[in-house]
Structure formats: structure tokens, C-alpha cells
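S1.2 Input.
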Amino acid sequence: METAFLGSAFQKEHYPKTRSPIVAFAGRSNVGKSSLINRLIGRKRLAKTSSKPGRTQAINFYDIDGRWVFVDLPGYGYAKVAKQVRAGWAPMIEEFLENHSDLKLAILIVDARHRPSELDRQMKTYLENCGIDYRIVATKSDKLSANQRRRSIDRAREFLGVNTIVPFSAATGRGKKELWHIIREVCTHG
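S1.3 Output.
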């Protein structure tokens, strides 16, 4: 798979010019967005990862095989960054989600180890209100037993009011095939 970093942007004037379908990845800080992207594309360090929340501070664009553009959005919620930096993320994310005509799918990422937060529910509602096709993925599912994972997914489905959540593990690749199937289906037929 051919991949390339297209650039980072804080404003729409700096978005890379592309006509490929866009898949945006959204979630709380430190939920594993960058690790998920890296596992999906089979690269260890295309999307930068960190153990510290809030490292993704711009909107990062990645070309995937000349067929799709993956967009890593800044995380919402807790992050050890200046309040004014954090306050700027919401308008930046909203501008992107509401006005990018090539956006075909948003992947809303939650942590399988924890109950989704009210911020996760607000993001899900926001995507629905904007008419953006989305799927929910629960990362770090490898850190739970099969029973814990099932209970966690059921709890998250109920809290978020959705039928399906894809369990995913950047460590083992669990959920990778299912997520690629969704991306291809939505971006080709959506």
C-alpha cells in the first residue's frame, strides 16, 4: 500500500488539494486514533503516536494508495495543552466536518476499556446532525477478555444508541478487515 503524509492544517485555506474520498478519524485524546490509522495501512509511523494526550494538534492528511485520504483530527477532551490551544480545536474540527465536500465517512473512536463519555455521545450526535455517515470503533479491545469485551461493547452500544460497534486492536489487527470493508463500501458506493 502506497501512503504519504500530505500535510497538516489549522485552517481550511491550508487543506491539501485532493479529490479522493475522505475518511476522518475522531475521538478523545489518547484513544488511539493514530495507532488505528497506522495499523489499517500497515505502517508503524505514518501517523505520529504518543503516550501523552493532545499530541495531534492540527488536522493531519494522509494519502492512501491515491484512492482515499485519511484525516487524523485533534482529540477532544482531556489533553495537557494550553487551554487556548484546546479551545481552538472545536472550531477547527467543526469547520472541517461541516464544510469538506469530499468527506464520505467519519470513524468515531472510543476506548473499549472505558464507558464512552458524554463528549463521545455529543460527537456522535453532532455527526448525525451534520448528516455525516459514521461508524464507531472501540480501540484497545485486546486489553480485555472476550467476556469483558462483549460487555464493554454492549454497554457502549446502549449508551451511544447504536446497533454496531467494531472492536479494534492496533496491537493484534482485530477489526482491521471489517473496518476496511466499511471504508471501501461507504467510499465506493456512499
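S1.4 Remarks. The mean pLDDT is 86.
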